[in-house]
Amino acid sequence: MNHIISLYYLPVNTIGTIEHLDCIGSIQRRLLDLGMIKGTRIIPLFKSPAGDPIAYSIRGSVIALRKEDALNIKVLV
C-alpha cells in the first residue's frame, strides 16, 4: 500500500519518491535546486546521534537536511 509521509519519518535505507514540497520562497527554491522534484527517488542513509540532521542519497549525491526542512518534503512510500 502506497502512502505519503514526511521525508523526516522515512526509515534509513528505505526508498521514497518525492511527491511534493510543502514550503514556499527561498527554501523551496533551494530544495528544487538540490533536485527535490516530483518523482525523484531519495534514500535516508545516516542519522546523526541526535537524529538531526539526516544524510540522504538523491540523484547520485549525498546531502544533509535538518528536521525542519525534511518535514516539508512529502514522499511516497
From TrEMBL:
This is Ferrous iron transport protein A. SUPFAM superfamilies: C-terminal domain of transcriptional repressors. Keywords: Iron. InterPro entries: Fe-transptr_FeoA-like (IPR007167), FeoA (IPR052713), FeoA_core_dom (IPR038157), Transcriptional_repressor_C (IPR008988). GO terms for molecular function: transition metal ion binding. The keyword 4Fe-4S does not apply. It comes from Candidatus Merdicola faecigallinarum. It comes from the Bacteria. Residues 5-77 form the Ferrous iron transporter FeoA-like domain.
